[in-house]
Design brief:
Layout: E1 6-12, E2 15-21, E3 72-78, E4 83-89, E5 113-120, E6 127-136, E7 148-159, E8 162-172, E9 178-189, E10 194-205, E11 213-223, E12 227-237, E13 247-256
Antiparallel strand pairs: 1-2, 2-3, 3-4, 4-5, 5-6, 6-7, 7-8, 8-9, 9-10, 10-11, 11-12, 12-13
Length: 258
């Protein structure tokens, strides 16, 4: 068994109890991705730049800290104006069976996690808003003594042909280092098939001497019926918080469903 959308759901009315992994509301998205399809703006910067080009990761957090892909149990409630969820993941990391004649478990190497999320229009037509908070307990985890905390506030609002979006993600690690990501974007539906969007994302760490990462991006989405065509361009500077580690990235995508 692996942890991609493995689950059992029990549903009664507007309430769902779920056990498994990768099957509950989660913050693994960038709401300012208005026309980029599967490629969020920060995805294009991974491994880019002129410093350690093959390994340099972008600083912007693609997700608030979450363990949604770990096995656990949760509940989802549809309130009408929004869906609310709570997810619990127990501490410890299961060890794989290597096929040998003996089996030995390891020490507690994972944190017990709790996370809550609300996402919906909150009674406002055209609004898509998200509130998220997670806490991963550090107690008993090898080499860590602080809780890891993830927070996300995000919203996009569509009126006519225009969509505006913005988000804040704030992750504090068990080592008490906080990464802050902020992003804004505006999209325009030229017609029913073509959408264009522009935006900017910034990220920083609260460490002495840390340099802010900036990503200016442009996206174009074109609906060709059964095929979606996307073009995304990112102009990143100080990628990964490394001075003068800059890159310009062009991404082209075709996707379809069978």
């Amino acid at each position: 068994m692996f942890n991609e959308n493995v689950y059992i759901d029990i549903t009664a009315g507007k309430t769902t109890f779920t056990v498994g992994a990768d099957h509950i509301q989660n913050p693994d998205f960038t709401i300012t991705n208005l026309a980029g399809f599967r490629a969020d703006p920060e995805d294009l910067l991974g491994g880019s730049g002129n410093s350690n080009a093959s390994t340099q990761a972008g600083l912007y957090p693609g997700s608030a800290t979450s363990k949604y892909s770990s096995f656990g149990a949760g509940i989802i409630q549809d309130f009408g104006f929004a869906k609310g969820s709570y997810y619990y993941t127990p501490g410890g990391t299961a060890q794989a069976d290597t096929g040998g004649t003996t089996y030995a478990g390891a020490a507690d190497t994972g944190e017990t996690g709790h996370e809550v999320m609300l996402r919906g229009d909150f009674g406002v037509k055209g609004l898509d808003a998200t509130l998220f908070y997670s806490l991963q307990e550090g107690e008993g985890t090898t080499g860590q003594n602080k809780d890891a905390i993830g927070r996300m506030i995000a919203a996009k609002y569509n009126f006519g042909q225009i969509t505006l979006a913005g988000e804040i993600k704030r992750n504090t690690s068990s080592a008490a280092v906080t990464t802050l990501g902020t992003s804004i974007a505006a999209g325009y539906a030229v017609n029913k098939d073509v959408t264009v969007a522009i935006g900017q994302a910034k990220a920083e760490k609260d460490q002495p001497g840390s340099i802010n990462e900036t990503n200016n991006f442009v996206q174009i989405g074109y609906n060709l019926g059964p095929v979606l065509a996307g073009l995304a361009y990112s102009d990143g500077s100080d990628i990964g918080g490394v001075a003068t580690n800059d890159a310009k990235v062009l991404y082209l995508q075709l996707s379809t469903a069978f």
